[in-house]
Design a protein that fits this description.
271 residues; eight-stranded mixed beta sheet; 8 strands
Length: 271
């Protein structure tokens, strides 16, 4: 099971739209995918038409008072389930600080699902906190949507300084530019030049788009209601670039997705 965190220090950079669309793409390949909404705002849950509430709340989840299968929700899309947000997640930092084995608490929550899912996509709240450190430890890849501005690059450098001290060896950091506006010269310059000078940056970019903003009205991934749009292709290019860095066997020499091999004997029985 690979864990992909969609994270940034800053808010308002498009983490939720990224997480929802990447989870949809992963599931469409045939990979058993779980989208975990860790943000108490519950935006990913909202987009997927799932109530942002977890039975027993945060305490029940961390102390594993309930069978995790009972907390999962089907998204309505094949191979894609949701572990919803809950308002109690606003206290995650406090609970992680005091919980036994708090530095690995989130990973311990997911442990029973290792045979049920191939990939987990985390929609993470902003900030550098105990929750963020938990996410860094558990994730295989940190996908960083960034608006192409000077302040975003400064925040990225601060994060990298922190990760160089704390990160695990397995963590891959994958920044890319999101909400890129063709009408803003600085967006054009930054999004084109930075990936050329810094190979860590993915060359795939996501445009600033009313069609993407419509996810809030449609309550669906963009790729589900506008699959032939330029924006949908941009997300496909992004996911292909992410997989090329983290799971190269899933992408062919043309950058196209290979169908995911599913072990039917391990396929999770949904309720």
């Amino acid at each position: 099971m690979k864990i992909y965190a969609v994270y940034n220090l800053k808010g308002g950079v498009g983490k939720t739209t990224t997480a929802v669309n990447l989870a949809w793409l992963s599931a469409q390949e045939g990979a058993r995918t779980l989208l975990w909404d860790l943000d108490p705002q519950g935006s990913s849950s909202y987009y997927m038409c799932v109530s942002p509430k977890v039975k027993g709340g945060l305490k029940g989840l961390i102390r594993r008072k309930h069978d995790l299968d009972d907390l999962l929700r089907m998204s309505g899309y094949a191979n894609l389930d949701v572990l919803p947000a809950d308002l109690s997640y606003r206290n995650l930092d406090i609970h992680l600080h005091h919980a036994k084995h708090g530095e690995e608490a989130l990973l311990r929550i997911l442990k029973p699902l290792r045979q049920s899912y191939d990939r987990v996509i985390l929609d993470c709240p902003p900030g550098l906190s105990a929750l963020a450190e938990n996410i860094f430890r558990m994730s295989d890849a940190l996908t960083l949507p960034m608006i192409p501005t000077t302040l975003s690059l400064k925040a990225y450098n601060r994060l990298i300084e922190f990760l160089n001290q704390k990160r695990s060896e397995k963590l891959k950091v994958l920044p890319f530019f999101n909400q890129v506006s063709a009408a803003k010269p600085i967006h054009k310059v930054v999004s084109r030049t930075v990936p050329l000078k810094h190979p860590a940056f993915l060359k795939a970019t996501i445009p600033d788009s009313n069609l993407i903003e419509a996810m809030g009205m449609k309550r669906a991934p963009l790729l589900a209601y506008a699959p032939t749009s330029e924006e949908a292709q941009a997300y496909r290019n992004l996911w292909s670039a992410i997989l090329a860095r983290t799971d190269p066997d899933s992408v062919d020499e043309r950058g196209k997705f290979r169908r995911f091999r599913i072990d039917e004997s391990k396929k999770k029985k949904k309720k």
